[in-house]
Amino acid sequence: MPSTTTGELYKTILLFGPPGSGKGTWGKILGMIPGFYHISTGEMFRTIDTESELGLRVMEIMQKGELVPDDIAFDLLKQHVQKTILLGAFRPQKDVLVLDGFPRTSRQAAMLASVAAVKVILQLDCADREILVARLRRRAVLELRADDANEAIIRHRFAVYESEIREALDQFPDDLIERVDVSAPPMHILASTSAIVYKRLSAEAQRG
Ligand code: ADP
Fold it and tell me: Which residues line ligand 1 (CB under 6 A)?
């Protein structure tokens, strides 16, 4: 990701969570607040140009429920951020970046550290995986997502998440991580995520 013109790191909120936990939904909601800008790597890959060789490769990986290789994921994220800056959509000196779906591995976490100052990590989760599976089945119909339509691929994505996320989280100090129970009613999640983000960013503003 290109750094800001002053070489500062992007002020960033990370959204972590297994498939179906609502990273995209809560990322979009936070991104609607003035001064926040949302980027989802999953969405970025889903809209990749499949005419290109790279695009085809990424699409094949996603359809299997595997992770896009770290270097490709980070390069594509950097290019995407560059584009949003050029368009004036993301203003690195003013906006907080809400990053959903990145990092997913410890290596990605290390790559991100060169460009982002992470202010808080929202770890969306719930103990009952079946609630998430039911949401994914519904999303498969509503959003026509190929990777949500197949039960075996859904289960594989959970397994990939479980195997990578601990190491990715270990790259950050524990006190940055805030857990949000996504089996709660949506208004409750809205209230708790807003309160967490407000608390974290205002504490930061006070420190100057
Ligand atoms: P979900 O969390 O439901 O799997 P996402 O939209 O976040 O949904 O991701 C969809 C797919 O995009 C992933 O299964 C993976 O193939 C790819 N992907 C998204 N983010 C990354 C990333 N940071 N690194 C590698 N692959 C990624």
Answer: 19, 23, 41-42, 45, 61-62, 65-68, 73, 101-102, 104, 108, 147, 157
Dmax of the chain from CA atoms? 49
Q: How far apart are CA 107 and CA 22, in angstroms?
A: 24
- Determine the distance separating the centroid of ligand 1 and the alpha carbon of 67, expressed in angstroms: 6
- pLDDT per residue, tens digit, the chain (208 aa), is 655 545 689 999 999 999 999 999 999 999 999 999 999 999 999 999 989 999 999 999 999 999 999 999 999 999 999 999 999 999 999 999 999 999 999 999 999 999 999 999 999 999 999 999 999 988 888 888 778 888 899 999 999 999 999 999 999 999 999 999 999 999 999 999 999 999 999 977 776 5
Contact 130, 178 (CB under 8 A): no
